[in-house]
Amino acid sequence: MGAGHAHRLYRQGDSAVHRLPPHCKLAAVFCFVLVVVCTPRTALWAFGAYALLLAAVAVTARVPIGFLLRRMLIEVPFVAFAFLMPFVVPGEQIQPLGFLPVSVSVPGLWDAWNVLAKATLGVAASVLLAATTELRALLLGLERLRLPPLLVQIATFMIRYGDVVTDEMRRMSVARRSRGFEASGPRHWAVLAKSAGALFIRSYERGERVHLAMLSRGYAGTMPVIDRVTASRAQWTAAAALPLAALLVCLLGWAL
Amino acid sequence: MSGTLAFVPSLDVRGLAYAYPDGHQALFGVDLTVERGERVALLGPNGAGKTTLVLHLNGILTAGAGTVAVAGLPVAKANLAEIRRRVGIVFQDPDDQLFMPTVREDVAFGPAAAGMRGPELEAAVRTALERVGMAEFADRPPHHLSFGQRRRVAVATVLVMEPEILVLDEPSSNLDPASRRELADIVRSLDVTVLMVTHDLPYALELCPRSVVLSEGVIAADAPTGELLADRELMRRHRLELPFGFDPAAAPVTPVTTTRKPGDR
């Protein structure tokens, strides 16, 4: 699909991973994450193996590790509380840095590790998915995986109108500043709130006009499926390689 | 097509009246007949009811009184799907009209909703985009096109349905002169009935041999465009004004067709 459609997360390329049908990749990532979450937290080596698996995918997709790590920073605010766990979870206390009077709890450390490792692996897998699959293709994949059509439609419209609404917001901001308004503190929040309200009304009215245009062209409640994505057995097998390898690691983790 | 009978008008509006749910009456008995292959301009001041009339043509609004028929088929609940295929409305803001992620999918929307699939659909989309000179933009998202290009794609989204009548709402608004001329070339090249709602009187003169004036909810005048624009008294009465320095009598009768293709920039 089109050039210029590229989202910041997407990385143009033509690798085996890029070429896989989107619904195969979605299913693979979903299963991979499930397997990772089911792994016992004490099997440290298993998480290392998962990371290696993901690295192998990244190499196949020719996604540079630096790119991957930068995109993964999105995770930080969500796992911040994991760092608190060693301090707040009750249990046996240790002083990891002997010379400092800081004590942390052992179960807390395990909890933090558990959240951190699993979240990081999940985010890495999602970032890889986003880097190798176009937004539009992802939606086609979700549609193919029988996500409720209404959700897919909403997401489709978000992609289409995200830029239009952002543009409108920018124009309103230019109009405000052209009349000498500069938001500098809480005193101006009322103005910003009113702008947000106006933007909402405008977007809502646009929604009504778009609906009108859709009706005029024969819309009757469902979007016609124009591009049906299909996958061959070989493509499903290729996509399954990641979650199956992970499952093996997971089972070993429970057994050992 | 079922409407190949040349003596059935493309559009037949009789005694159409409509009041909005809030009680405001917009149309007071509109009579309008557009013959097959005609290009007619619908002129009128703001608030005259032009958009209200247009929304009756494909059954978005339902007449309070009177009837609308498209190529003999009355606009009624039972025929809505067919009516909406026959009446292609190009709305004023192409961002409202183009709601799919790519140009190709947008043009495909109408026929796909009607059940067309596969190579047949692809061919129809390609033909429609070629007619407006936008074939090479098929895979682009609409918001990456210029305004003029978006308007042309909007025309393609209804042309692909092979409509009986093409309704253009303010087709020249917000276009730069080159895009405006390109769109005129496209409209002239189409073999389809056109109803053009506009404030752009020179554009009406250039494209439409016949004009009707909608004023205060009724058709106030119906005449060859040149004559109508030259009638100063009538124009003043209905708040219609020509651009400064424009003399309808001096304008070329047959517009100069340029040799450039619509796609040239």
From TrEMBL, chain A:
Keywords: Cell membrane, Membrane, Transmembrane, Transmembrane helix. CDD domains: EcfT. The keyword Zinc does not apply. The chain crosses the membrane at residues 43-65, 72-89, 109-131, 236-255. It is found in: Cell membrane. It is a multi-pass membrane protein. InterPro entries: ABC/ECF_trnsptr_transmembrane, ECF_CbiQ, ECF_transporter_component. Pfam families: CbiQ. The keyword RNA-binding does not apply. PANTHER family: SLL0384 PROTEIN (PTHR34857). This is Cobalt ECF transporter T component CbiQ.
TrEMBL record, chain B:
It comes from the Bacteria. Pfam families: ABC_tran. Keywords: ATP-binding, Nucleotide-binding, Transport. PROSITE patterns: ABC_TRANSPORTER_1 (PS00211), ABC_TRANSPORTER_2 (PS50893). Residues 11-241 form the ABC transporter domain. One of its GO terms (molecular function) is ATP binding. Belongs to the ABC transporter superfamily. This is Energy-coupling factor ABC transporter ATP-binding protein. It comes from Streptomyces lichenis.
